[in-house]
Amino acid sequence: MPLPLASLDQVPEWHALESHFREIEPLHLRSLFADDPDRAERFSLEAAGLRLDYSKNRLTSQTVEHLAKLAERTGVRAGIGAMFDGSRINVTEDRSVLHIALRRPAAKALTVDGVEVMADVHAALAKMSSFAERIRSGSWLGFTQRRIRNVVNIGIGGSDLGPLMAVEALKPYADRGLTVRFVSNVDGTHLSESIRDLDPQETLFIVASKSFTTQETLTNAVSARDWVLAAMSDQSAVKHHFVALSTSAERVAEFGIDVDNMFEFWDWVGGRYSLCSAVGLSLMIAVGTEHFHDMLSGFHAMDTHFEEAPLEQNMPVLLGLIGIWYNNFFGYDTHAVLPYDQYLHRFPAYLQQLDMESNGKSVDRAGKRVRWSTGPVLWGEAGTNGQHAFYQLIHQGSRIVPADLIGFCRSHNHLADHHDKLVANLIAQGEALAFGKTMSEVEAEGTAASIVPHKVFDGNRPTNTLLADQLTPKVLGALIALYEHKVFVQGIVWGICSFDQWGVQLGKELATRVLPELQSATALEHDASTSALIRHYRSRRKA
Ligand code: F6P
Fold first, then answer.
1. What's the rounded mean pLDDT across residues 152-172?
2. Is the pLDDT of residue 2 over 80?
3. Distances from the Cα of 467 to the Cα of 53, 281, 384, 470, angstroms
4. How far apart are CA 480 and CA 158, in angstroms?
5. Which residues contact ligand 1 via a Cβ below 6 A?
6. pLDDT grade for 543, boundaries at 50, 70 and 90
7. CA 85/CA 1 separation, integer angstroms
């Protein structure tokens, strides 16, 4: 069933929001809170172990009603149904989008094009699990009969950022006797620095590539294979030290990896949505099968909430719509994600691909140029580090940056009062951004008149606060699914295809053309700037 496609800025719900915006825009969060003592409670909800407080946003109950009507009109409800029933909603690649199947219990059947997919999903998980446990127990041996102590995932984009982020996030659950690293950049420095202190006889490489054609990944994999063969001088070492995660058995075999050691996934799993598939193998090795399955159950809990909750009480839908409120009506075009947890230090980078590769589009699903702004620039950093770097701009800069503050009530590391201090900072930032500090408050502190304007905080700067008890595998799963579905909701409303990424192709094609031109003195037919850069590199490279 094709997704409905509305001409967003023509529908009455959009116009209603435009006039509602004119009423809300002049209001300050200070008065919204003062006038409504139940505001915090009214604009908070819980789902899948996460508590969202969205009361520090520039909205009222009416705003939420208007936004929900827009969601209804633009087909969000139908879109959710279409994703969960396996419709080919990735229209430009003619594929289903079924990452929700990867974390679905085996007993909940799901048929796509007449094929029951849950049996395949769980067979693949079982194969991953048996391999992961062999590595963890030491029963999988390297070519020289040594135990594997190091695991290096070679992949990029969706075949890197998810497992890398999650291995960092779930470190407290990891087997600390195993070193797990991630190599993504084609810059030889990345591989060299990642393996320089490792013993090839004790190292397993996981070559992760959905397509198995990605230049960076294959280049790194070939160099890693050379490194292994230089130490073991026998081609058959490859099958002991390399496994692959891919949708293409043919290309994996061509590379020389035994297809028995290939972990399969399917074209209905988008790269940036693939953590729960075979792409999560490095994570499963790090934390073990049980914790991996706990994470899947967290994903599934959020999936179920997303599928079943009414739009106005649906956490991913609300986050998506609030983002649209700022992006399209206030004109705030960046969004910060600020996790107050060191273990989540790669979460913003992970979300950058999820959000910006999904919704950084300017034509709709029918190929028509959109007249409204789409995906925001997403960025962030772990608290409290960001506070001493860019928060100045968030508090007093001329642009407004809506932000998500993410925190946990219990730490994994009980060190004096570190955690209370961390959470005090999270809570204080939301308060400061919302309510600011008025001129009279600054004057009342006895500040010199010339300095007063510098110390005023306008406030009225919106945040969402997400809290959970602890960063467990289950909570991590729910958190990731929350953002996946938020991005989906926004894509539906904007009318774009969130599941392709044609925008990365041109640069790749041109790099393929430029490469031989750097390596030999062929004639150049580029623009003057590009040709001059190539010539400069050629001359300096020789030197
Ligand atoms: O950057 C484009 C992209 O296709 C991403 O969408 C993807 O996650 C990444 O490259 C890696 O692709 P693959 O897993 O096929 O190597």
1. 98
2. no
3. 8, 28, 16, 9
4. 13
5. 156-159, 209-211, 214, 217, 271-272, 357, 501, 504
6. low
7. 9
